[in-house]
UniProtKB/TrEMBL annotation:
It catalyses: dTMP + ATP = dTDP + ADP. ATP binds at G10, P11, E12, G13, A14, G15, K16, T17. It comes from the Bacteria. It comes from Heyndrickxia acidicola. Gene3D superfamilies: P-loop containing nucleotide triphosphate hydrolases (3.40.50.300). This is Thymidylate kinase. Its EC number is 2.7.4.9. The lineage of its organism: Bacteria, Bacillati, Bacillota, Bacilli, Bacillales. PANTHER family: THYMIDYLATE KINASE (PTHR10344), UMP-CMP KINASE 2, MITOCHONDRIAL (PTHR10344:SF4). Residues 8-198 form the Thymidylate kinase-like domain.
Length: 214
């Protein structure tokens, strides 16, 4: 695989989707081959799995079922979209990946980070991002941002209690320590412009390291 795989992670409303779209536009304007995608989703089957996972009516969903559905969506998305893009040398920008499973299902749901990592190893066959940007936002600020965003539908995970979202954040802190070589923190409490600048600096540095001068 010749390409570069970059993911963004963080709690709800951290600004990942908006900032990543801006980064994709800036990089495309420099003539780079960019694939902007998301999890769960990004391709037809994974979008269908997303509907099942995030449907607010599916309140009876078991935690392990949830973890397996995320891993299944991840597998299909990798095989159909991410791996072919990396093979042709593209830069893949993906909104969430395995670290969300570790933080949400492994830590916040209490299934165990190691256990969730193991099922994801089966799904990914060890494919990991070259760089992950962790959008560090205060939980209350993130939830306020999504409340104020009329365009975004509230999903089943959004409806979890504040305690759950706090555990998600604690889970991410734990994961950052474990994968400190790969994950870099971005202060997502800052303004949109400031966050975009920091994200572009970090992506540019990674591209330069990989021999892509932008
Ligand atoms: N730095 C920022 N300051 C203020 N508002 C922001 C900032 N970044 C994004 N927003 C706004 O906050 C809302 C949530 O942003 P966005 O959807 O990008 O977050 P997200 O991290 O993808 O959330 P989720 O993962 O929960 O879907 C949007 O309305 C967006 O315009
Ligand atoms: C990949 C992944 C995601 N989640 C959660 C995180 C969010 O609550 C939703 C996705 O919604 P978004 O608006 O696209 O961020 O799913 C998760 O719990 N586990 C995962 O692996």
């Amino acid at each position: 695989m010749q390409g570069i795989f970059i993911t963004v992670e963080g709690p709800e409303g951290a600004g990942k989707t908006t900032v990543l779209a801006e980064a994709a536009t800036q990089l495309q304007n420099k003539g780079l081959d960019i694939v902007l995608t998301r999890e769960p989703g990004g391709i037809r089957i994974a979008e269908q799995i997303r509907q099942v996972i995030l449907n607010t009516e599916n309140t009876e969903m078991d935690g392990r079922t949830e973890a397996l559905l995320y891993a299944a969506a991840r597998r299909q998305h990798l095989v159909e979209k991410v791996i072919p893009a990396l093979d042709r040398g593209a830069i893949v920008l993906c909104d969430r990946f395995i670290d969300s499973s570790l933080a949400y299902q492994g830590f916040a749901r209490g299934l165990g980070i190691q256990e969730v990592y193991a099922i994801n190893q089966f799904a990914t066959q060890g494919i990991m991002p070259d760089l992950t940007l962790y959008f560090d936002v205060d939980i209350e600020l993130g939830l306020k941002r999504i409340e104020q965003n009329n365009k975004r539908e509230i999903n089943r995970l959004d409806l979890e209690a504040i305690d759950f979202h706090s555990r998600v954040k604690a889970g991410f802190e734990n994961i950052i320590e474990t994968f400190s070589d790969r994950i870099q923190r971005v202060d997502a409490n800052k303004s949109f412009e400031e966050v975009c600048t920091e994200v572009m600096e970090k992506i540019t540095q990674k591209l330069n390291e990989k021999g892509i001068l932008v």
